[in-house]
Amino acid sequence: MAEDVVVGSRFVIPAGEFTERFSRSSGPGGQGVNTTDSRVELLFDVESSPSIPADLRDRVLDRLRPRLVDGVLMIAASEHRSQLMNREAARARLTALLREAVAPPPPKRRPTKPSRGSKERRLASKKRRSDVKKGRGGRLND
How much is the pTM? Predict the structure, then answer.
């Protein structure tokens, strides 16, 4: 029943690498909340997964390190009333997390200096602000 998760053109995670646990949800569902196991916990062992390419593994582990417990990533979904929709939500969340983790790092920032005009505008606005504050003095001219 479970489908493979396509993270990108580089790799696909087979459904056999996931573990799903179900429990009672505290979310919407009315009286059914007390009887159905609609909450889904999706567990994925990132450290020992053979489907993550070797050149991307370090990047994924580094970026997901705060979320990993013993190398396992856990995603919980309980926002929907049905178990099936929560399963789909958990898989979508996993896909988004992994896509973000394998994305290449952003380009380095190129240091620049403020232009002459921007410096002059900044100083002029500081002068105007200073004049406004000077005008607030509580001096009484008798």
Answer: 0.67
**The token pair that represents 9 in the structure block:** 């053109």
CB burial of residue 98 (10 Å; 0-12, 13-18, 19+): buried
Per-residue pLDDT of 37-51, as tens digits, reads 778 888 988 888 888
> Which amino acid belongs to residue 136?
R
53-60 contacts at long range (C-beta below 8 A, 24 or more positions apart)? 53/10, 53/11, 56/10, 56/11, 56/102, 59/101, 59/102, 60/98, 60/101, 60/102
d(CA 122, CA 115): 11
Residues near 114 by beta carbon (within 8 Å), at least 6 away in sequence: 122
Are the C-beta atoms of residues 8 and 94 closer than 8 Å to each other? no
Bridge partners of 76, per DSSP, are 41
In sequence order, what E strands does the chain have?
Answer: 5-6, 12-13, 18-23, 39-45, 68-69, 72-77
Give the whole-angstrom CA distance, residue 7 versus residue 52. Answer: 10
